[in-house]
Amino acid sequence: MKTKSLIIGSGPAGYTAAIYASRANLMPVMVEGPQPGGQLTTTTEVENFPGYFDGVQGPKLMEDLRAQALRFGTQIISGLVTDVDFSSRPFKAVVGDGKETIEADTVIISTGASAKYLGLPDEAKYRGMGVSACATCDGFFFRNRPVAVVGGGDTACEEAIYLAGLASKVYLIVRKDYLRASKVMQKRVFENEKIEVLFNTQTLSLGGEELLDKARLVRFKDTPQQEEFTIDIDGFFLAIGHQPNTAVFKGKIELDEQGYIITRGKTTETNVPGVFAAGDVADPVYQQAISAAGMGCRAALDAEHFLMMNE
Fold first, then answer.
1. What is the DSSP string of 282-297?
2. 2-114+242-310 and 117-238 agree in CATH topology
3. Which residue of the set 105, 122, 137, 234 is catalytic?
4. Pairing status of strand 100-109 against strand 75-77
5. Is 157 one of the catalytic residues?
6. 229 to each of 198, 204, 205, 220, how far by Cα in Å?
7. Active site residue 137
8. What gap in Å lies between CA 173 and CA 68, rounded to an integer?
9. How far apart are CA 69 and CA 17, in angstroms?
10. Helix 58-71 crosses helix 11-23 at what angle (to 10 degrees)?
11. Catalytic one among 122, 138, 234, 283?
């Protein structure tokens, strides 16, 4: 299979890139990946994506974007890219067990990033029912209700402060006896009356009949001072980082220390001419659906310009 533009991954970035690439007559081929639609397919209500006045369910939003990409002629393949060759054009991508190889004049990588979880079985059970990895996305639903944030870095502190403006109470669950966040962020956390920091504390389990309503914690685990206790919460926010989905690109393209794809200046260009990156896979800062969609647009325009200058 050959294409002018191969899009690896879906989600807001991938589908938007597909819409723009299709309208530019690049006849793009998209390999959706193991989770078509990305992280938003695991969320419930999305109220901050423009155009949906009354909000929209995450899966429905992704269905709409996918349908729009198909409408303009994107060819979508269900599967996972397991290997790539960016050493020369046309680039090559192996899908699945190697029976299918796609040759592409340009590649747009939009494989996203996956939130890190603690690994508790309850996290999956209550995901979208109280468990979230994005306070900016879901904090609005917990106005005047108690919540907890897990983590001790800048992101965790930022989310705790953000949630304190909405929730009635915020517990910050910190495994160590100190915060890793910057001094400024620590000061803001300690000065906020709504935030209670639980040091030396880990989560054992989550509970609730249908929706999450409590968390069982342990302080000073595996020590003589070990103490188990329960907190009543309606929201449980993970803020222990994200893992960019770039394992297949390691050694093939330039990544930063965390594994995110490095892009050039204000463009979506990578260090390999003709290969572009969009969305959370290249954005460790904002990680929002709307910013990913905008980056997908830019990647398609960059790919179109590249082809114009090199054909």
1. G-SS---HHHHHHHHH
2. yes
3. 137
4. unpaired
5. no
6. 11, 10, 11, 12
7. yes
8. 42
9. 9
10. 20
11. 138
- Token pair, residue 125, equals 């059970």
Q: Which of 83, 105, 122, 134 is catalytic?
A: 134
Domain 2-114+242-310 falls in which CATH fold? FAD/NAD(P)-binding domain (3.50.50)
Give the CATH number of domain 117-238.
3.50.50.60
Q: Name residues whose C-beta falls within 8 Å of residue 108's C-beta, 6 or more positions apart in sequence.
A: 5, 6, 7, 8, 14, 17, 21, 28, 268, 276, 277, 278, 296, 299, 300, 303
pLDDT tens for the chain, 311 residues: list them.
999 999 999 999 999 999 999 999 999 999 998 888 887 876 667 888 899 888 888 889 999 999 999 999 999 999 999 999 999 999 999 998 888 999 999 999 999 998 888 999 889 899 889 999 888 888 999 999 999 999 999 889 989 999 999 999 999 999 999 999 989 999 999 999 999 999 999 999 999 988 999 999 999 999 999 999 999 999 999 998 889 999 999 999 999 999 999 999 999 999 999 999 999 999 988 888 999 999 999 999 999 999 999 97
Q: Report d(CA 302, CA 296) in Å as an integer.
A: 10
0.90 exceeded by pTM:
no
- Look up residue 302 and give its two tokens: 């960059």
**Catalytic (active site) residue 297:** no
What are the boundaries of each domain within the chain?
2-114+242-310, 117-238
State how far the Cα of 237 lies from the Cα of 224, in Å rounded to an integer. 29
pLDDT at 115: 83
Residue 133 to residue 294: CA distance in whole angstroms: 22
Cβ contact 202:221 at 8 Å: yes
